[in-house]
Every structure is written in C-alpha cells, then in structure tokens.
C-alpha cells in the first residue's frame, strides 16, 4: 500500500492542532495545488492543521498525480478506482489523526474533482463520522448500473456534507451535484449544496466562503458533541 505525503500548514494560532483539514486534489494535479486553500480558511479555523497529500499514482496524462486512472472509456473505472485508492487514503487519515492526537470528530475532508470522489467515498465508510466533508466540482461515485438506493448499505458513518459546483462545469457537468445529493438523501446523509453561477471546473470566491463557513460550523457541532 502506498504511503501518502504532501505539503502541510500548522495552525495559524501557533497552538497545538485542535482540528485537521485534509485537502484532496484532482486528476493531474498534486497537493501543492490545494494547500493554498488553507490560507483562505485559516482566519475561520486558527487552530486547524491542513495537509494536502499527493495522490499515489503518476497521472496517465504525463504530469501531476492521480488517485486512479481515468480514460473516460470504461464506465466502471471510477468505481474500481475509488475502491482501489480508498485504503491508502484511509491509512493516511488514521496516521495523521494518531500523530496529532485527534479524534474523528476533529477531522474534515475537502476534495476537488477526483479528490471529491475520494473524500465522499472514504468518509462515508469510515467507522466514525468526521466533522465535515466538502465536495468541490466532483461527484459521489456509485457502482455502475446501480441507483441512488445502492449507497445506503455501504454507509458506516454519517458526516455533514457540502457539495459545491460551477453551473458551467465542462469536465464534470453540474448534473453530478444533483445526482450526488439524491444518493446522499437516499442514504439519510445530510447534504447542503452551493451553485456558482458562470463558473466552470473550478472554485470561486462564493464556494470558498461557503466551504469555510461549513467547515467551521462542522467543527463547532462536533466539539459540542465531544
């Protein structure tokens, strides 16, 4: 199993981390592409550490990294991919929490595009719910040929989820947001969503703002529950 590494930022407050936000990049990128998001959210989360692991495989496009291969010719490749890459991400999350002395309720996942697929797939199958999951410009991956109802038996933990998407996304069409929300609802997973008008496959200021507020609220709720 590959061991993941990537850039990280320690808490802005200078204190020992009280939360951990893991940023999962998209296809053909690496952790350096997302770690800068931490600077946007540090004012809201001054005691949070941030880490953006590089995906385990070199990208088939010849640059960057990938969580799994995407040829867009095989309808089963996303499902196989999230299941194959999931254990390495799970192990990374466990190791990071142990190193920082944190619990599941002090963890949040943020994923962009293919990283969103990984964040949703792994978080719903972990033994305890994380504080929040933010999926940006991505989708919930279901087994090919199965409907939204197929998710519920696989769900082990129910974290709060925010889905954000550009309504002009040319890579993962915006319909993916609504299909993902439908599957989450069928599995009794609470989900909010945000549409960015006129935005393609990217993250605008509105999505960043909503995501930061959602992360802060998720950590606050989790802290109250203990």
Automatic annotation (TrEMBL):
Chain segments annotated as transmembrane: none
Keyword Hydrolase: yes
Domain Phospholipase/carboxylesterase/thioesterase: 15-216
GO molecular function, one term: hydrolase activity
Pfam families found in the cross-reference section: Abhydrolase_2
Protein name: Phospholipase
Coiled-coil ranges (or none): none
PANTHER family: LYSOPHOSPHOLIPASE-LIKE PROTEIN 1, LYSOPHOSPHOLIPASE-RELATED
Keywords, sorted A to Z: Hydrolase
Gene3D superfamilies per record: alpha/beta hydrolase (3.40.50.1820)
Protein family per UniProt: Belongs to the AB hydrolase superfamily. AB hydrolase 2 family.
């Amino acid at each position: 199993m590959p061991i993941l590494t990537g850039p990280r930022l320690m808490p802005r407050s200078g204190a020992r981390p009280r939360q951990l936000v893991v940023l999962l990049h998209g296809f053909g990128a690496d952790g350096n592409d997302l770690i800068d998001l931490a600077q946007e959210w540090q004012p809201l989360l001054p005691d949070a550490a941030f880490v953006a692991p590089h995906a385990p495989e070199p990208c088939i496009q010849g640059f960057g990294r990938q969580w799994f291969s995407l040829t867009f010719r095989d309808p089963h490749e996303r499902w196989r991919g999230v299941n194959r890459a999931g254990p390495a991400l799970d192990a990374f999350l466990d190791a990071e929490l142990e190193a920082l002395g944190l619990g599941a309720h002090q963890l949040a996942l943020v994923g962009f595009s293919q990283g969103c697929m990984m964040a949703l797939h792994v978080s719903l199958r972990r033994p305890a719910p994380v504080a929040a999951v933010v999926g940006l410009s991505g989708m919930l991956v279901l087994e090919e040929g199965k409907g939204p109802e197929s998710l519920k038996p696989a769900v082990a933990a129910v974290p709060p989820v925010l889905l954000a998407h550009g309504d002009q996304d040319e890579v993962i069409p915006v319909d993916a947001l609504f299909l993902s929300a439908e599957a989450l609802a069928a599995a009794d997973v609470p989900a909010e969503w945000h549409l960015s008008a006129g935005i393609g496959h990217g993250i605008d200021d509105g999505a960043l703002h909503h995501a930061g507020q959602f992360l802060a609220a998720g950590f606050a709720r989790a802290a109250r529950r203990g």
